[in-house]
Design a protein that fits this description.
Length: 367
């Protein structure tokens, strides 16, 4: 069994370096392994690939790979990667691209560093020089309260809107072979900019959904699809008036609010004045990591339990908590187990984050 190849870069925004101490050891593993990229979609930098590695990738067609590029500018890459061999990553990407190995690219965007004009230059260079890129995903830098790098700062409202405009302009000119856009922004940008998400269809194959790109559009699309079936069977839920509490993060709550708006519109079209749910959203703030970390998957069990203890949970018949807070072994980022969460108060149900599951929960069909 091949040992995991570890990262030799010292990226200024490395999320692992921004974690608190005393967490489980697996959270501090910095992998940069092409096999994990191929099998699980982990992003790699290609800076540590050997000639032998490249030959294996090409011979066995290990694709698509998920590659972090961040910038094509040598000076900026030196700052971002903190590795004198950072250009090796671009050289290896070119070799693989010439061998028709397909890739999905990630750009972690840092306000005032690789955004704006440099982002445009990076996108232009990737599209013109590399012919086997499936998608380019852009995500905002994650900053926790443990960050010690002064360069990092969260995006402002104006900056997020400007970034969206840049990507929209770029996508008007560049498409893939199926006339679909190739450059995508993560959902956080649209939430921060207070804009609607792009259409579900515009995300194509959702090839970077695990990177938070198109996840919200997919969720809302499935909610709207479920509403059609729900509206045809309103009589089944007309007597369902159990009170439900849905636990979510700051960004997750923003998406859930849009879902409730869609449900209200969809139901009222068929039966004006009809309501099919008595649900409330509990927004949990990430005090464990702090900073600009507002996604649901990184909520700590401690923050969730503390938030529940601040309210009268006895008022609710059902409390729904997304199972995305757990890793594959059933632990939260602060190492609380499923049992720890379930035992924190009565009537807790763990649910997945799919739109269909959401509809089942608020109508009682999934209890």
């Amino acid at each position: 069994m091949k040992e995991t190849t570890c990262c030799k870069n010292k990226c200024i925004f490395c999320f692992i370096d921004q974690l608190p101490g005393n967490l489980r050891p697996s959270l501090y593993v910095k992998d940069d392994d092409y096999l994990l990229s191929y099998m699980y979609g982990n992003f790699i930098t290609l800076t540590n690939l050997s000639g032998k590695d490249i030959k294996k990738i090409i011979k066995y067609r290990l694709e698509p790979l998920y590659v972090s590029v961040h910038s094509l500018d040598p000076g900026l890459r030196s700052i971002i990667f903190g590795n004198k061999d950072h250009l090796r990553g671009l050289s290896n990407l070119k070799i693989l691209d010439d061998a028709n190995i397909k890739t999905n690219i990630q750009i972690v965007l840092v306000s005032g560093l690789n955004d704006g004009r440099n982002l445009v230059e990076t996108l232009n260079g990737l599209i013109s020089d590399y012919k086997n890129i499936i998608s380019i995903g852009i995500v905002p830098v994650g900053i926790t309260r443990y960050n010690k790098c002064q360069i990092l700062k969260p995006f402002s409202y104006e900056e997020t809107n400007y970034t969206i405009d840049i990507v929209d302009d770029f996508n008007r000119n560049y498409y893939n072979a199926r006339r679909q856009k190739k450059v995508f922004l993560s959902d956080e940008f649209y939430i921060m900019a207070e804009r609607d998400f792009p259409s579900y269809k515009s995300y194509g194959d959702l090839c970077q959904i695990e990177n938070g790109i198109g996840k919200s559009a997919d969720f809302l699309y499935r909610v709207r699809t479920s509403i059609k079936e729900l509206s045809r069977n309103l009589h089944l839920f007309s007597h369902y008036r159990q009170k439900s509490l849905i636990v979510s993060s700051e960004y997750g709550a923003a998406v859930l609010e849009k879902a409730f708006e869609d449900i209200a519109k969809g139901v009222c079209v068929h039966e004006p004045g009809k309501s099919i749910t008595a649900a409330r959203i509990l927004t949990v703030y990430n005090n464990f990591l702090g900073g600009n970390v507002k996604v649901t998957g990184l909520l700590s069990g401690t923050d969730i339990i503390c938030s529940l203890r601040k309210i009268d949970t006895s008022k609710y018949d059902n409390i729904f908590i997304p199972d995305s807070i757990f890793n594959s072994e059933g632990f939260t980022i602060d190492n609380l187990s499923r049992d720890n969460i379930m035992e924190s108060c009565n009537n807790i149900f763990l649910v997945d984050e799919g739109g269909e599951s959401f509809i089942r929960c608020i109508t009682g069909a999934g209890i």
